[in-house]
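Task: sequence design from structure.
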């Protein structure tokens, strides 16, 4: 049996537009981001994707992207599951800082390590920093030691993979076509697992905003064609999506 999984990074957010490290800050979509989200819905419909269930993070930019895409498809009624485990990576003390300015201050090599290395997190937030998620009511029910002060991609893999196995895979196993609408790094973590991408190589994988990716999975819930480049999985205008991914790579200058 073949199982279908669609991954969708949220549309452009206000902090994407301003080129700021966003992380767990709850930036909303720009007008361009709303347009991207609706276009993602049309791309899925045009590709004949028939969705059965939605999984999102608890961050507004992902939730609004999913709603706009599903509205375009006439599927606002779709069952929804949400989890903080699909949230964007925490950028720690970099949250809210301009990416280009941070590069000017710390050097391109250091910023690339913070942005793209697999196992080196940025400097952490202090516990009394108002940006720390312990002050956000949506996480009030979580044990404090689960709330990140900073994360590398390896940390995102560790907190995201239990959700993959315990929540998303059961939906797939039941024969449901699953849409996961989340963030650049939580989706990179999942793509790393699905395509068996090495720790060094995942640094060069950049996901554009608002472009759905279709995975066809086998009985092991891994892609039937493993090792394809990410752009080979895009729905819609693949060349435009590839150009948008290259723009993501250039954000820190």
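Answer:
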């Amino acid at each position: 049996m073949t199982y279908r999984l669609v991954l969708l990074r949220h549309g452009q957010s206000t902090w994407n537009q301003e080129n700021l490290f966003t992380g767990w800050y709850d930036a909303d979509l720009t007008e361009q981001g709303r347009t991207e989200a609706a276009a993602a819905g049309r791309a899925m419909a045009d590709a004949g994707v028939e969705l059965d269930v939605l999984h999102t993070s608890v961050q507004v930019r992902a939730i609004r992207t999913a709603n706009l895409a599903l509205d375009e498809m006439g599927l606002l009624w779709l069952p929804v599951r949400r989890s903080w485990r699909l949230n964007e990576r925490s950028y720690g003390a970099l949250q809210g800082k301009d990416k280009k300015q941070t590069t000017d201050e710390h050097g391109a090599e250091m910023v690339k390590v913070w942005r793209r290395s697999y196992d080196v997190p940025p400097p952490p937030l202090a516990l009394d920093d108002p940006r720390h998620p312990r002050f956000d009511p949506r996480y009030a029910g979580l044990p404090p030691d689960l709330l990140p002060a900073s994360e590398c991609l390896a940390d995102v893999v560790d907190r995201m993979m239990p959700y993959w196995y315990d929540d998303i895979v059961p939906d797939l196993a039941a024969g449901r076509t699953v849409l996961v609408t989340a963030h650049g790094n939580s989706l990179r973590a999942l793509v790393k697992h699905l395509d068996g991408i090495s720790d060094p190589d995942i640094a060069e994988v950049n996901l554009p905003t608002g472009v759905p990716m279709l995975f066809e999975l086998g009985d092991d819930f891994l892609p039937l064609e493993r090792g394809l480049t990410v752009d080979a999985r895009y729905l819609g205008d693949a060349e435009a999506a590839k150009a948008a991914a290259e723009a993501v790579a250039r954000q820190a200058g």
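The first helix runs from residue 14 to 17.
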